[in-house]
UniProtKB/TrEMBL annotation:
Protein name: Alcohol dehydrogenase catalytic domain-containing protein
Superkingdom classification of source: Bacteria
Phylogenetic lineage: Bacteria, Pseudomonadati, Bacteroidota, Sphingobacteriia, Sphingobacteriales
Record keywords: Oxidoreductase
Cross-referenced SUPFAM superfamilies: GroES-like, NAD(P)-binding Rossmann-fold domains
Length: 349
């Protein structure tokens, strides 16, 4: 359908994915919601699959349609909005208030009065339509496809933010390791290459050949943990230590071995949720002046800079998208994604 038709012909009911648990997904017809004041109605056009969808995939959620890496087109704007119907864009998943102390400082990923997490608490991109607050919508240029637009979210956004967190404590790193070569890990790798330059060495570990091959294509130095310890494999690449370690795996053993590989004054950034980490405070932190920081998603205001980076590096970044499926094949898309022989898997309308 043309953009005009999408705006003029909003159906009364449309398909919304329903996650039934045990990797089963079906579609039900539901009433298309109306945008309230300050809100936009989006016709969703693409959504990228994410490991954060797994609790819904395995345990089910019939309350909402998940999907939090949304690209779509505004088909109807509520009162008190300035975005016009026909605007294409992507959705920042956190419905931030814009008024609290953290939002005022630009830290919209740390909002103290969050209204929604789109795709978690409210309908997301696996339904045909979603209603969002206008302030989470970010327009994309005409020559960036919806599918490409989703790269600005968890790939560039979350990846870039993790590196900016590291920059708070380390201004002159000469090496980095990324733990886990899933989509988030690949995003961190790609953003490190873009932000520090192609010669900046980034080791990246995993156990899945497909992902390590893709990481290598993106310029990473692959570390296959099936073939030995992190320290041994890093040594084979010529690294006895690294300045920055970023964990996207959520595994304690990964964090621990990364910390042991960290140089003095190095920093470990934790992006992957999951397990814990036992610390020996004196050797781990005090004597070595290392730092450990968390990094959660990214701030809305980072999207603008990341779009500029995308436009300069689009061919490089597009390599992260390895599979696309029509939305009605969402269950199959997840089957492929779960097998881990993929980069980003994206469903399209
Ligand atoms: Zn995600
Ligand atoms: Zn806020």
């Amino acid at each position: 359908m043309s953009n005009e038709n999408l705006i003029q012909e909003i159906p009364e009911k449309a398909d919304f994915a329903r996650f039934l648990g045990k990797q089963k997904i079906d579609f039900v017809q539901r009433v298309v919601p109306q945008p309230g004041p300050g809100q936009l109605l989006l016709k969703n056009m693409a959504n990228s699959l994410c490991g954060s969808d797994f609790p819904f995939l395995y345990n089910g959620n019939t309350e909402i349609s998940p999907g939090h890496e949304i690209a779509g087109i505004v088909v109807k704007a509520g009162e008190n909005t300035s975005t016009s119907a026909g605007t294409r864009g992507i959705v920042f998943l956190m419905g931030y208030c814009g008024k609290c102390r953290n939002c005022k400082q630009g830290n919209t990923n740390q909002c103290l009065d969050k209204q929604a997490d789109y795709g978690f608490t409210h309908d997301g991109g696996y339904g045909s339509y979603s209603v969002i607050n206008e302030n989470v919508f970010f327009p994309i240029p005409d020559d960036v496809s919806y599918t490409q637009g989703t790269l600005l979210l968890d790939i560039m956004g979350t990846g870039g933010h993790a590196i900016k967190r590291a920059q708070l404590v380390h201004q002159s790193p000469v090496s980095m390791i990324v733990l886990g070569a899933g989509p988030i890990g690949l995003g961190i790798l790609a953003m490190a290459k873009i932000m520090y330059g192609n010669d900046f060495p980034v080791l990246i570990s995993d156990v899945v050949d497909y992902r390590l091959d893709l990481a290598k294509k993106l310029g990473g130095l692959p570390v296959n943990l099936n073939n030995g310890s992190l320290a041994d494999s890093a040594a084979k690449h010529g690294f006895k230590e690294v300045d920055i370690a970023i964990d996207s795996s959520g595994k304690e053993v990964a964090r621990r071995s990364a910390l042991d590989l960290l140089a003095q004054r190095g920093t470990l950034i934790c992006v992957g949720h999951g397990e814990g980490l036992q610390l020996k405070i004196s050797p781990d932190l005090i004597a070595t002046e290392r730092a450990i920081l968390g990094s959660e998603y990214f701030s809305y205001n980072e999207l603008k800079g990341n779009l500029e980076l995308y436009l300069k590096n689009r061919d490089y970044l597009d390599q992260i998208i390895t599979h696309t499926y029509p939305i009605l094949e969402l269950e199959e898309a997840f089957r492929i994604f779960v097998e881990r022989n993929s980069g980003k898997v994206i469903v399209e309308y």
